[in-house]
Design goal:
Blueprint (H helix, E strand, L loop, with lengths): L2 E4 L3 E4 L6 H4 L6 H4 L11 H15 L3 E6 L4 E10 L5 E8 L8 H16 L4 E5 L5 H9 L3 E8 L4 E9 L1
Parallel strand pairs: 5-6
Antiparallel strand pairs: 1-2, 2-3, 3-4, 4-5, 6-8, 7-8
Length: 167
């Protein structure tokens, strides 16, 4: 397991195919993904994981497996979807339902900001969430993102609160 960042309770690790079963609890779970772009088919999860592993190799930033230290379980995914220029990247996160309400997403998101600062060439981190996903919106505000207004997103086909974090 390649650890990218460590917090008090979590490891952010490069995804491995061994994480497929755990990913079913967040990316493959309809309830967890209901306010996102819907759950991924379980048979597609190895491709998703491999894509994020390759993105880390190619770009040095990616979406990472969030492992709870105490249980040694992968409880979610967090990290960045880079753009072509890498000046602007998007923060995303998804966590298994059993890990909700424990501060893990906030802790991991704050760690991601530190990761991005260490990369040097990133200028803006963007984020958005479904307007009904109040937990995610609170996380963004808690870690210092600025609300920029509502913005239309083609992938979700709706207007969503849009946030930026300037480095």
């Amino acid at each position: 397991m390649e650890i990218i960042f460590e917090t008090e309770r979590l490891y952010l690790c490069v995804f491995e195919l061994a994480h497929v079963e755990a990913a079913k609890q967040f990316w493959g779970n309809q309830e967890v993904m209901s306010l996102c772009d819907d759950a991924s088919a379980h048979e597609l999860l190895p491709q998703v994981i491999e894509g994020y592993r390759k993105l880390h190799e190619d770009r040095g930033l990616s979406v990472y497996a969030v492992t709870e230290k105490e249980s040694d379980e992968v409880i979610g995914a967090i990290g960045f979807n880079p753009t072509d220029s890498m000046d602007v990247i998007e923060l995303i996160y998804h966590f298994s339902k059993k890990s909700w309400g424990k501060g893990f997403a906030t802790e991991a998101a704050a760690a991601c900001l530190k990761l991005a600062k260490n990369k040097g060439n990133i200028k803006i981190i963007t984020a958005s969430a479904d307007p009904l996903n109040l937990g995610s919106l609170k996380i963004l505000e808690k870690i210092g993102f600025t609300y920029m207004g509502m913005k239309w997103f083609e992938d979700t086909e709706q207007e969503e609160p849009y946030y930026e974090y300037l480095l």
